[in-house]
Write a structure and sequence with these properties.
The structure is a single chain. By secondary structure, the protein is mainly alpha-helical. The protein has one domain: Arc Repressor Mutant, subunit A (Orthogonal Bundle). Helix content is about 65%, strand content about 10%. It has 6 helices and 3 strands, in the order ααβααββαα. The protein has a 3-stranded antiparallel beta sheet with strand order 1-3-2.
Length: about 140
Amino acid sequence: MVRPHPALLMFISFRHAEERIVAAIQEAGYDDITLAQARLMARVGPDGTRLTDLAEQAQVTKQTAGQMVDQLVRMGYAERRPDPSDGRARLVCIAARGLEVQEVARRTEKVLEWEWAAHLGKERMAALREALEDLREVTDPYA
């Protein structure tokens, strides 16, 4: 039997986590947000992020990212603010309703981490986290 590539194994775990998080968000009453919108929101930094950076990180066109941000703004999850470093630019920021969604997501992430630690054991979970943090150094251009 051919063993799956580590990247595929990471992707499977990621998809499981992503599906659980989105399900928890929807069960909490935020059932108007789509998976694509949630993925984009997850990339908004604490001080806001420019649309071009969001599009690049989400690997979508600027137009697609702009349409999703427009939807998120209309639904109250995001807002656009002037960029203090460039008066001509605007930042996409998380609005109050979006912060509520983030809290649901963070709680679900903690539950997932506890479940994984219970399955793997404390030492293996710590080793997994350390290995993934090390890999991030060579795989994440946005870290």
